[in-house]
Amino acid sequence: MKKFIETLRNIWSIPELRKRILFTLFILAVYRLGAHVVLPGVVPSVLDAAVGQRSGTDILGLINIFSGGAFNNASIFALGIMPYITASIIIQLLGFVVPYFQKLQQQEGESGRKKINQYTRFLTLLITLVQGAAYIGYIQSLQAVDPDVSQSLFWVSSIIILATGTLFAMWLGEKITDRGIGNGISLLIMVGIIASLPIAFASEFVLRATDNAWFTLILEIAGLFIVTMLTLMAVQGIRRIPIQFAKRMIGRSSANMPQTGARDYIPLKVNAAGVMPIIFAQAIMFLPVTLSSKLGGGNNAFIASLGDWKSVPYNIIFFLLVVLFTYVYTALLVNPQQYAEYLKRQNAFIPGIKPGKSTEDYIDTLTTRVTLPGSIFLGFISILPAIVGRMGVNDAFAIFFGGTSLLIMVGVALDTLQQIESYLLRRKYDGLVKSGKIKGRSSGMQSIGAGI
Fold first, then answer.
1. What global pTM score does this model have?
2. Which of 73, 199, 375, 383 could make an S-S bridge to 326, C-beta 3.0–4.6 Å?
3. Cβ-contact 415, 183 below 8 angstroms
4. What distance in Å separates the CA atoms of residue 192 and residue 133, rounded to the nearest whole number?
């Protein structure tokens, strides 16, 4: 405890770091305040009654948990920054298949990144307008709109407000990145997820206290801790491929390139795809229920089970999709040919492996082997909330045992703590851990891994 207090004192003693942390907390408070500002024309009491009649295990309940309650509140931030995330994913995928976007991402430098940001923002606006129209239609279907308000006026004004709220949230995230600490967009997502944790834990505590099941509560807390630690290991886990740089003669002496006597490695991440496979899989799982409701096939029991995130069919298909998308997204991110070409340009090689095609095949084989346990673990984490929920844990608290929420919280926490630690180490203070360094999702990616 003494060491912890001393670390906090060191953090507070750095003026720039202190200002950045306070600025970040202020922006996050503004974002959470906006989650409780209801759209004009919506009747909160009617909305709460309609939402309360809906199953807590359906897809919309899951979206509400991820938005920190803003979705069910019909707030100005009801869509949050998810349209921006969707737009970013689309632009990123276009970078893999469309040469123009690939050139912007890899060859244009800072000007290319500015153009990509412009395209992303424009696409965000378009997606927000489409999702906003669908969301307003959902609110109107709940009959939560004041009957004295013109429905057409409510529809148009609310879409504009939702679009403005999303763009404002995106701006808040960018301000955190520029003037605060950590990645702003990721922090906004995390604070929305974690906002429901106190209420969820309190509900679970009351449930176990009522049943006098204190031992069960202790087991649940211990299980959550173990799952978090395993997720932490998966996020930081890498497979190092050692490389050597060929020597060149300088006069009568030899030197290694690019650093004399240096040995380096290619870091292959166990979970290179991050949370993207889960996001893609969830998007796919939304389609059957959505199409069924539009086509009038809602009476099909199997289709209905795909709308319940705790059902067996949903989780079997969800697990398989996560494993599949993990391989697909890893294949898009990790290009063995680029690694082989980079090694050739740097006059480097993997010991015992011939340069060129042999190096490419070797890296591809290792990537496949490393991705297998990573994909299975990611698939297990994605369905763990449903398993825990079926074991008796309340739905709101079960969400934190895995899935997108846990991966985002662990990854964002590591990135933020890594930045704080870098400030401390630059001022010659001790870091946040006694030994070693905190590794975020992008830390530890040295040389070649960082250059591709």
1. 0.77
2. 375
3. yes
4. 22
CB of 377 within 8 A of CB of 234?
Answer: yes
Residue of 394 and 112 predicted with greater confidence: 394
Q: Which two tokens stand for residue 135?
A: 């969301």
**Torsion angle of the four alpha carbons 35, 39, 40, 45, in this order, in degrees rounded to the nearest 10:** -80
| Residue the block writes with tokens 């060191």 | 10
Rounded to 5°, the CA angle 165-441-347 comes to 125
Q: Are the CB atoms for 70 and 106 separated by under 8 Å?
A: no
Say whether pLDDT at 159 is over 90.
Answer: yes
Taking 3-state DSSP, the helix, strand and coil percentages for the chain, each rounded to the nearest 5, stand at 70, 5, 25
**Any long-range contacts for 373-376 (C-beta under 8 Å, 24+ apart)?**
373/270, 374/234, 374/237, 374/269, 374/270, 374/271, 374/272, 374/273, 374/326, 375/277, 375/322, 375/323, 375/326, 375/327, 376/323
List all residues 6 or more positions away from 366 whose beta carbon is below 8 Å from its beta carbon: 239, 241, 268
| Contact (Cβ atoms closer than 8 angstroms) between residue 318 and residue 281 | yes
| Domains recognised in the chain with CATH numbers | 14-195 (1.10.3370.10), 196-452 (1.10.3370.10)
